[in-house]
Target: UDP-glucose 6-dehydrogenase
Amino acid sequence: MKITVVGTGYVGLVTGTCFAETGNDVTCVDIDANKVKKLSSGQITIYEPGLEKLFERNLKEERLFFTTSLEEGIKDAEVIFLALPTPPGADGAADLSFVLNVAAHLGKIMTDYKVIVDKSTVPVGTAEKVTAAIAQNCKTPFDVVSNPEFLREGVAVDDFMKPDRVVIGTMSERARKVMGELYAPFVRQGNPILFMDEKSAELTKYAANSFLATKISFMNEIAVLCEKLGADVDMVRKGIGSDDRIGKRFLFPGIGYGGSCFPKDVQALVKSSQDAQYEFKILNAVMDVNENQKLFLLPKIKSFFKNDLKGKHFALWGLAFKPNTDDIREAPALYIIEALLAEGATVSVFDPEAMANVKQVVGDKIIYAEHQYTCLENADALIIATEWSVFRTPDFHKISASLKNQAIFDGRNLFEVSRMKELGYHYESVGRIPAIL
Ligand SMILES: NC(=O)C1=CN([C@@H]2O[C@H](COP(=O)(O)OP(=O)(O)OC[C@H]3O[C@@H](n4cnc5c(N)ncnc54)[C@H](O)[C@@H]3O)[C@@H](O)[C@H]2O)C=CC1
Ligand SMILES: O=C(O)[C@H]1O[C@H](OP(=O)(O)OP(=O)(O)OC[C@H]2O[C@@H](n3ccc(=O)[nH]c3=O)[C@H](O)[C@@H]2O)[C@H](O)[C@@H](O)[C@@H]1O
Model:
């Protein structure tokens, strides 16, 4: 099939590459000429494990193309995916201008039947708006489908190739047939394609992200309670996660959820609810808990340093909002850095992939270490904000030799408390009884 993907960010690039991998001719369109130039010359623009190999193969075998021209990109295409940004506007609602502007442009240039697919995360009612935007100037028949994406950064290729489910929202039989054929190679493992109406598909996406965010905030509150009552959140997590009705996943407490999606999507669903004259009480609490959780370690750090961080120097491991990505959008580490600097401290940072992105945002207010161990030089304590594998089994002798105080503040519960006690660390984490020197 010939398909077009408009927007070659995270979702667009994964979507385009994976559809090319299953034998389709894919043209990706982006307004960012620099990005298109890089991608056309074989240079991948995002860090995503496993994607580069597929990208290079499909580019070489001429199933994957890039252009800045929408007209050129949609020529002969049967399906057009819109993988465009939907950032939060000033009031928290999803900004649909990228999607609607492209839709209006499509209406002017389409000359035969096409299926236009909302791949971006968009509020209920967007398929209708996209239909209206296209229809203003369009003379050919078309269908608009809501096909939300559930991939996670870091495991995006696997998530796309072996989805738990594919949600396709449209009542058009013609569009259902086209979409069913396109996704057939991905759902062979027995996971279903769920056909539904557009609005239900749109809400499914927000409900999924909001439910997962709720699970995390719930566990973060349980972690707070564990510390207050002397329980261990790891035990409680395993205790409840063994119940199939609850499930083991997404129960890890930490320093809050970040990334480009949970924060914006929870906020957008709250706003959609308000617009429908309904106050979504749980989600307001989920957002509140998450705001506080980002700075969960700060009082512990301040208390260790007797409320005076002025002149103290901290090593911070982990900047990305989660491991296996260079994405720093809403990363808790950025909030910790700001708070430490505001207290008059200085900070050295290390992350395996996200350093360049942080440098662009934070600049020279902090020191960028070459290595996780050089990051520790002259530091009064170590803070861990992201659970990269390389941080899980560190050389504790090197850590001890570099740190001025044997103190580690771990926002991702990487180490056993008992081991840290044996090693002689002042070790504080999230929801567990601390090892205090
Ligand atoms: N990042 C993720 O893991 C996931 C994101 N989503 C949703 O997918 C959508 C896209 O997200 P990302 O890929 O992360 O966004 P992104 O910000 O990484 O990429 C968007 C791309 O669209 C391009 N663009 C902007 N205006 C354009 C136009 N008029 N014509 C052509 N290209 C244009 C930008 O240059 C950029 O390359 C959002 O709605 C997001 O919520 C859904 C699931 C996962
Ligand atoms: O809509 C989206 O963009 C995507 O948002 C999330 O994916 P992603 O943001 O890539 O990352 P997650 O693995 O979900 O993690 C999100 C945040 O939650 C945190 N988290 C996750 C799990 C957990 O148990 N505890 C926890 O604090 C992570 O550290 C991270 O900051 C969803 O998992 C995807 O299904 C969805 O497609």
User: Anything to note?
Assistant: Residues 121, 149-153, 209, 212, 216, 250-252, 254, 257-259, 261-262, 321-322 surround uridine-5'-diphosphate-glucuronic acid (ligand 2) (CB under 6 Å). The domain at 298-428 is CATH 3.40.50.720 (Rossmann fold). The two ends are 64 Å apart (CA to CA).
